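To illustrate the input format used throughout this study, we show a single complete record. The first block contains the structure-token representation of the backbone; no residue identities are included at this stage. The design step must infer an amino acid for every position from geometry alone.
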């Protein structure tokens, strides 16, 4: 075997072994990169430089602001207001609390951009409420966890910024807009499944509201929803960059939470900053180590080899796309979302965009949805773990209840894969492509 072949096996193999040994992904990526660089005789400073280059980007400044804005609004009473507003709109349907759960996740996902934050915030309120009204625990977990995936593709989403970086600068504004239609379709599909199960099991409806109550609920929710409007509207209109828009959203969220809603004292802000810093440290160190890993992948021509390997299996574009989806779904079962975006984008981008001609924005949403499904799939689905822990049921029971929800998520995934208009229609109309 050639030196390059041995180095490629060392890079991939050592990374896999470290994951099996339960080494954190950040350290697994960094150690595998360092070992491979040492074998190739490359100076260790090149690995360090690659890691530094990975986070030395102005676009990445948007990530801490997105995380901070989501933390502020998540702890400041916005989740309860989203639930009340959703109840106003869909609560009268059969199994109304399930419909409320999905719609509230759609609204909250547009603020937090995180599936796990959605499950933690919405789920901690909705699941006990559903249990009290006679809903089965496994059903409430299934609705909460699968609907949280909307937060991955409904703008804003910091994972889209990570993809934009990994793909070489795909328009963040276009990615934000491209997630709207798939996110809404996913939400409506989950609501349809929730309704069908609710009718069969005889779950109750929620009460109706007077006009005065309705106006009050809508007014209370309006300020929270404006956070997403500021972020997406600022980026799409070209008035702000993604970073500037996220920073303004932070200031807005701070004012609304601590000086308008005033449900939490200002002293809680230190705790919010601490939680933001912990999350940011994990995300940025992951991006840094993944950059070093990715540069070695490119140096060893591994993406090109994988492209050739996939094309040798079949040249049928439909089968290739199904194969790519299957690969991403399987990877999503065993790894978290952010590292997979950073690792798989440079590998699959040449196949899907370069060979098959898919638009980079469409591929981004395809990637987000695949890996979002992975967040609610065992054995490493973080959203599934959080939902099961909040409801205090076994993961096996929750997974069994989620089977019909998985099915509609896969149908939406196929739409995103094979119908380009689902993702590209809105950005083409508003941003010219």
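Output of the design step:
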């Amino acid at each position: 075997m050639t030196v390059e072949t041995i180095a490629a096996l060392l890079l991939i193999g050592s990374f896999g072994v470290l994951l099996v040994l339960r080494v954190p992904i950040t350290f697994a990526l960094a150690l595998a990169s360092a070992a491979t660089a040492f074998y190739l005789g490359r100076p260790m400073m090149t690995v360090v430089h690659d890691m530094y280059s990975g986070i030395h980007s102005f676009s990445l400044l948007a990530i801490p602001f997105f995380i901070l804005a989501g933390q502020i609004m998540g702890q400041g009473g916005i989740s309860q207001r989203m639930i009340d507003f959703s109840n106003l709109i869909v609560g009268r349907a059969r199994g109304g609390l399930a419909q409320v759960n999905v719609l509230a996740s759609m609204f909250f996902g547009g603020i937090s951009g995180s599936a796990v934050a959605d499950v933690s915030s919405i789920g901690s309120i909705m699941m006990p409420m559903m249990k009290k009204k006679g809903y089965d625990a496994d059903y409430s977990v299934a609705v909460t966890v699968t609907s949280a995936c909307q937060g991955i593709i409904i703008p804003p989403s910091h994972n889209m910024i990570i993809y934009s970086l990994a793909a070489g600068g795909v328009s963040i504004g276009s990615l934000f807009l491209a997630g709207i239609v798939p996110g809404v379709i996913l939400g409506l599909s989950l609501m349809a499944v929730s309704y069908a199960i609710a009718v069969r099991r005889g779950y109750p409806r929620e009460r109706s509201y007077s006009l005065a109550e309705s106006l009050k609920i809508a007014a209370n929710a309006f300020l929270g929803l404006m956070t997403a409007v500021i972020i997406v509207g600022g980026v799409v209109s070209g008035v702000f960059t993604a970073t500037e828009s996220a920073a303004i959203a932070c200031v807005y969220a701070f004012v609304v939470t601590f000086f308008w809603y005033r449900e939490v004292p200002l002293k809680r802000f230190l705790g919010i900053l601490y939680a933001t810093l912990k999350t940011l440290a994990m995300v940025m160190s992951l991006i840094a180590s993944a950059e070093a890993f990715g540069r070695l992948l490119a140096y060893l021509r591994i993406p090109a080899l994988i492209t050739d390997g996939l094309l040798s299996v079949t040249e049928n574009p439909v089968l290739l796309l199904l194969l790519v989806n299957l690969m991403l779904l399987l990877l999503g079962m065993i790894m978290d979302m952010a590292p997979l975006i950073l690792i798989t984008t440079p590998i699959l981008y040449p196949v899907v965009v370069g060979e098959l001609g898919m638009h980079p924005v469409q591929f981004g949403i395809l990637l987000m949805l695949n890996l979002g499904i992975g967040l609610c799939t065992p054995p490493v689905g973080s959203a599934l773990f959080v939902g099961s822990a909040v409801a205090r049921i076994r993961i096996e029971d929750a997974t069994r209840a989620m089977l019909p929800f998985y099915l509609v998520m896969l149908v939406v995934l196929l739409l995103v894969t094979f119908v380009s208009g689902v993702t590209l229609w809105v950005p083409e109309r508003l941003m010219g492509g």
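Structural context for interpreting the output: The radius of gyration is 22 Å. Residues 268-299 form the longest helix (32 residues).
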